[in-house]
Write a structure and sequence with these properties.
The complex is a heterodimer of chains A (433) and B (359).
Chain A lengths: L84 H26 L13 H9 L6 E3 L5 H6 L4 H9 L32 H14 L6 E6 L6 H12 L4 E7 L2 E2 L2 E2 L12 H4 L4 E6 L3 H16 L5 E6 L19 H5 L5 H11 L5 H23 L25 H17 L7
Parallel strand pairs in A: 1-2, 2-3, 3-7, 6-7
Antiparallel strand pairs in A: 4-5
Chain B lengths: L2 H7 L7 H4 L7 H15 L3 E5 L15 H5 L4 E3 L4 H14 L2 E5 L10 H7 L3 H4 L9 E6 L14 H5 L5 E3 L4 H13 L4 E6 L39 E4 L4 E5 L2 H13 L3 E5 L2 E3 L3 H11 L2 E8 L4 H13 L8 E5 L9 H4 L3 H13 L1
The chains are: A alpha/beta (433), B alpha/beta (359).
């Protein structure tokens, strides 16, 4: 009898033994990186269908890559949103401010001013350009890496820093992990921290808007890794069933902490293609191309507003930094990946485009970056006057028990009294300042 | 809170015929349907969604006629996705609607648990009041209908354990209507468990005797129009001196019948909601009787009876003359053919009462 692989299954039979495929990324730390297998295609290559197009007639767009900005830094093809120079400069500025903000907050975490931070470096266009294509009162249900939406919508930066520091100025009363913002005034849903829960909620919001005959639509962002959650599939089903006016943005940044996109099924098909099985219009977009991100989101918004149905957009991008302050990407992926990423950096590409148009130059870019850094620095100082995490300037003690219910029930009242008593036992002379 | 004062706050038996006006008798399904109708007529932001709730009117008929009356935009069928149903309701609540989703059986609610526990229950807290989840999830629960292990469960303790959720369980048609209207109008998320064994009659645990319809029970007299029963106020079923029996849902009727047959002078308290809990009613009664039996159909270990037992022991210890006992379902899945061996019926309750009274 011939040797068989080490397997109990199929013993005594001639059937071939089965094998399990466990995905493995192309490159690990120290590996030389070659992204020639990534077909980025030519800018301007993809056709732009009518916004009311039947999803079945545009299925190639789920497998291609919508790109506008070419290697010549010019806009190409039918997806060129033809934005004026002022809008492009605003977009660039929002991206510069977001990047400066990320730098400062990351450093603040390293300096012990807070517990946690998450940068969106390299992914700025997927939130900033996309949200600029929406109306300011369209409701967004973000994941945790869309700080660019708040900064684009004019949310006060100091509120974001107060939240990150969980200080006495934090309007969320220090209850949430840093970066889990909420602003009803800016049509920005409270960030959960549990993954993909916001996706079907966005569909529900959009259904409500349709029930009421409103004109506002909903848009939501989720990472490619989190599309594996059941919530994502519930969202696609509900969006398709009720033809909900919603945009499902999937940010494929290649990595979910240390797990590459293969663990969400990325080896088999595109994430945009997830929409096709549901009968949802699907677009796959160069997420580092600010113009393409804007154009795709605007297409989907027009479609939703015209009652033509939901859209799933995959933004193909790259997470240039770690997942958060809690992981070191050099432990699981090759450092060369960032340098070799074939779609470049979204901020640099938009900058070069404006320069190519004769609407910008290096001096103005440097001045803008300096101003952004200075503005962030000054705002950080201002926020620090309200305290940093763990330094006593938090919300009053009793707020721990508020907002569990609209009214305080007896058991929480008793527990609040217990908490106060514990404090008196620990600090009989009063809480030290 | 002194005991007599708490005693005075307990609502006594519902709906004397005088206050109900003309004798209009409904079963629990009809009462629930009427509660939905009354609230939908008053508030255009209320929407009903769930599997088979639209044209068909629900597998238990609780939403019958509502789609025809209020339109498909306000009463509609959903995909078979409890996660999607609860999540969509959360999103609708964030928009400003007041959704009343139905989960066809409580046993099916688990795919929606993350949306209930991590989302609906915490929106108000995590957003410091910017967003709330004013939804009421209706779901039939409990056994006694030969539903087997996937159509018989009583998972209320899971929800009571979650901060931010209210858990309501009616035991009569009158209460079902008043509690459901209160739940829908409440601005916090509520899980509304409907004891499906008593949809059509007040099942007393004697499965081998003819079933009684609701129309022979006073609590089937249901006033027309709008009324509410506040969440967190227990109902005094019978006053008594010998022992306190704490129950809710179907088990209220079983306990009542057992005590009647045994001639025990029991004080039976129907909790109506377990969060919020009417602790004053419990304390006042146990301080008076000195003996306490807790009855629920759910499994025993870490069931809500454990919480009740701990509360009674912590707060009424020096009034107790016997150990607090629990009568519950067994810690097994709900079996199909041995349903009545599983069900905490008259024998199990009677034995526990004898034990408490013999101490």
């Amino acid at each position: 009898m011939a040797d068989r692989p080490d397997s109990a299954a199929g013993q005594g039979s001639n059937k071939p033994s089965l094998s399990l495929h466990v995905p493995e990324p192309h490159y690990r730390p120290g590996d030389a990186v070659d992204f020639s297998h990534v077909d980025s295609g030519e800018a301007g290559r993809e056709p732009r269908p009518d916004e009311a197009c039947d999803p079945a007639e545009m299925r190639d767009l789920a497998y291609g890559l919508i790109r506008v900005l070419g290697d010549d830094d010019r806009a190409h093809g039918a997806w060129d949103p033809k934005l004026d120079a002022d809008t492009l400069r605003t977009m660039l500025k929002n991206m510069a401010v977001t990047r400066a903000f990320d730098e400062r907050m990351f450093r603040g975490q390293r300096q012990g001013k807070t517990s946690f931070y998450m940068k969106c470096t390299g992914e700025e266009a997927t939130s900033i350009s996309a949200s600029m294509a929406l109306a300011s009162d369209d409701m967004v249900f973000p994941s945790y890496r869309q700080q660019g939406i708040l900064l684009s919508r004019g949310y006060p930066m100091i509120e974001m820093i107060n939240q990150i520091y969980s200080n006495r100025g934090d309007k969320l009363k220090g209850r949430q992990l840093p970066i889990m913002y909420s602003s009803r005034e800016h049509s920005f849903f409270t960030i959960s921290g549990n993954l993909a829960t916001q996706t079907p909620q966005a569909v529900g919001w959009a259904m409500a808007s349709a029930i009421k005959g409103d004109s506002r639509i909903a848009a939501t962002w989720v990472g490619e890794g989190s599309t594996a959650e059941g919530d994502f599939h519930a969202a696609c089903t509900f969006a398709a069933v009720y033809n909900a006016p919603v945009i499902l943005n999937v940010v494929n940044n290649q990595w979910a902490i240390s797990s590459f996109s293969g663990f969400a099924g990325g080896e088999r098909t595109t994430f945009a293609a997830r929409g096709l099985g549901h009968g949802i219009a699907a677009l796959r977009v160069d997420g580092n191309d600010a113009l393409a991100c804007y154009a795709a989101e605007r297409w989907a918004a027009n479609r939703a507003r015209a009652n033509a149905g939901p859209t799933l957009i995959e933004f193909f991008t790259y997470r240039a930094e770690g997942h958060s302050t809690s992981d070191d990407p050099s432990g699981y992926r090759s450092a060369q990946e960032r340098e070799e990423w074939p779609l470049g950096d979204p901020v640099m590409r938009l900058k070069r485009h404006l320069i190519a148009l004769g609407e910008w130059d290096e001096e103005r870019q440097e001045a803008m970056d300096r101003e952004a850094a200075e503005m962030v620095r000054a705002t950080t100082k201002e926020a620090e006057a309200n305290g940093i995490l763990g330094h006593g300037l938090h919300h009053p003690f009793r707020t721990m028990f508020e907002d569990v219910f609209e009214e305080l029930p007896w058991h929480l009242r008793e527990q609040a009294e217990q908490a106060v008593k514990e404090r008196e036992i620990k600090f009989p002379e009063g809480v030290p300042k | 809170m002194s005991a007599p004062q708490a005693q005075a706050e307990i609502q006594t038996a519902p709906a004397s015929e005088a206050e109900a006006g003309a004798e209009r008798r409904l079963n629990m399904i009809e009462a629930i349907n009427e509660a939905l109708d009354v609230t939908m007529a008053r508030d255009p932001d209320i929407v009903i969604m769930g599997e088979d709730v639209g044209y068909f009117g629900g597998v238990f008929r609780a939403t019958a006629g509502l789609q025809e009356k209020y339109g498909k935009n306000r009463v509609f069928d959903t995909p078979i996705s409890e996660c999607g149903i609860i999540a969509a309701a959360v999103g609708m609540g964030a928009y400003g609607l007041r959704p009343v989703p139905e989960i066809q059986f409580a046993d099916y609610i688990y795919p929606g648990l993350d949306q209930l526990i991590s989302e609906a229950a915490r929106l108000r807290y995590r957003s410091a009041g910017e967003y709330t989840a004013p939804l009421t999830v209706r779901t039939p629960f409990g056994g006694g209908i030969f539903g087997g292990q996937t159509h018989s469960q009583s998972p209320e303790a899971i929800f009571a354990h979650v901060s931010g959720l209210k858990t309501v369980i009616p035991s009569t048609p009158y209460d079902a209507k008043g509690l459901l209207i209160a739940a829908i109008e409440d601005n916090d998320p509520v899980i509304f468990f409907e004891p499906k064994r008593i949809y059509n009659g007040p099942f007393n645990g004697y499965y081998d005797k003819p079933a009684q319809p609701w129309k022979k029970h006073d609590a089937s007299i249901v006033p027309e129009g709008h009324y509410t029963i506040p969440l967190g106020k227990a109902r005094m079923v019978t006053e008594g001196e010998a022992l306190t029996v704490i129950a809710y849902g179907t088990m209220v009727h079983v306990a009542e019948e057992v005590c009647r047959q045994k001639g025990v002078d029991a004080e039976i308290i129907d909790l109506r909601s377990i969060v919020p809990l009417d602790i004053e009613a419990i304390e006042a009664s146990v301080e008076k009787t000195g003996r306490c039996l807790i009855v629920h159909e759910a499994t025993r270990t870490a069931g809500f009876g454990a919480e009740l037992s701990a509360l009674v022991t912590e707060r009424c210890f020096y009034h107790l003359e016997a150990p607090v006992l629990r009568v519950t379902g067994f810690d097994t899945p709900y079996p199909h053919s041995l349903e009545w061996a599983y069900f905490p019926g008259p024998v199990r309750i009677g034995e526990a009462i004898d034990k408490i009274l013999s101490e």
